[in-house]
């Protein structure tokens, strides 16, 4: 996702250019040219827990419908903050079982569409818990879009253009334009700001140390005379009084109190810059 809130799906390692739907050859036989000169393709595409069921059943002719299934898995993961299908990633059959545990077994119509897939004999019988059980707090438009994306039958699965017109995108909260999005502080700007805060803190600590040294020198004098050092620190607040009490109550003490509040309760504490810097790698 870029800074304008645009999410791009861009893993094209095994991408092909296709026209229209190629999920099944008109003859119903896999490996044919689908009437358009296209050869069979690999079904080992997409990470397994984002892989459409027709691919798991061994389909070799397919189209953009497999990508829309993946979009459904991504939307589900954004809602759950965890993968929807995270079962046995080493086995297509294990992933098919994970799908049926949620969606149930494919309908008779879907099974007819799968009949010539090499792995169609592996259809698992299961009632499934349903999407509502997995997303109990989400509204009907959300579940409807998920159901349209996670449709067993490629021929009935929603397209990208249809998905953009879905009521989900008209329900509250409405999508925001890029300029309205809350954007994280760029990392370079954040590092510069933290570095600047660190420098200001160091300067304040040095000023506080100097004021404390001046106060200690005045207390050591103890002869009741006003000194140039008192004047440099701001002079006495009691009409020129130069006693230890006057020095503690003078403007110099006020300056020190101001710096104390700037530096916090413990002016000698380690700067937070280091800790903040260590957290930068985990921030946007």
Portion in strands:
under 5%
Number of strands: 0
> What structural category arises from helix and sheet content?
mainly alpha
Shape: elongated
> Which percent bin holds the helix content?
40-55%
Quick rundown:
By secondary structure, the protein is mostly helical. Helices cover 44% and strands 0% of the residues. The C terminus is likely disordered.
Textual characterization of the structure:
The chain is built from twelve helices and no strands. It is mainly alpha-helical and 284 residues long. The protein folds into two domains: 48-180, Transferase(Phosphotransferase), domain 1, CATH 1.10.510.10; 187-282. Residues 21-37, 224-251 and 265-284 have low confidence and may be disordered.
Secondary structure layout plus pairing:
Layout: H1 53-56, H2 65-80, H3 92-103, H4 108-113, H5 131-134, H6 140-149, H7 160-164, H8 187-221, H9 228-233, H10 244-249, H11 251-263, H12 273-279
Using brief descriptors, characterize the structure shown.
mainly alpha, disordered C terminus, Transferase(Phosphotransferase), domain 1
């Amino acid at each position: 996702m870029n800074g304008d809130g645009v999410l791009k799906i861009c893993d094209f390692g095994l991408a092909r250019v296709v026209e229209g739907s190629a999920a099944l050859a008109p003859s119903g036989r896999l490996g044919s040219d689908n009437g358009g000169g296209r050869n069979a393709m690999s079904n080992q595409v997409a990470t397994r827990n984002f892989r459409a069921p027709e691919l798991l059943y061994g389909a070799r002719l397919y189209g953009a419908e497999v990508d829309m299934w993946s979009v459904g898995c991504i939307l589900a993961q954004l809602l759950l903050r965890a993968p929807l299908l995270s079962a046995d990633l080493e086995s297509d059959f294990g992933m098919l079982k994970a799908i049926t545990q949620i969606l149930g077994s494919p309908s008779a119509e879907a099974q007819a569409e799968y009949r010539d897939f090499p792995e169609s004999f592996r259809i698992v019988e299961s009632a499934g818990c349903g999407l509502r059980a997995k997303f109990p707090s989400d509204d009907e438009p959300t579940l409807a879009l998920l159901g349209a994306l996670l449709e067993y039958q490629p021929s009935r699965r929603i397209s990208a253009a249809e998905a953009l017109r879905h009521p989900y995108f008209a329900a509250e909260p409405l999508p925001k334009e890029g300029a309205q999005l809350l954007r994280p502080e760029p990392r370079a700007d954040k590092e510069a700001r933290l570095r600047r805060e660190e420098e200001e803190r160091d300067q304040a600590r040095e000023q506080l140390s100097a004021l404390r040294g001046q106060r200690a020198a005045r207390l050591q004098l103890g002869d009741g005379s006003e000194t140039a050092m008192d004047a440099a620190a701001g002079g006495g607040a009691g009409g020129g009084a130069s006693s230890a009490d006057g020095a503690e109550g003078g403007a110099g003490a006020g300056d020190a109190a101001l710096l104390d509040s700037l530096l916090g309760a413990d002016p000698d504490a380690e700067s937070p810059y280091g800790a903040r810097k260590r957290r930068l790698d985990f921030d946007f």
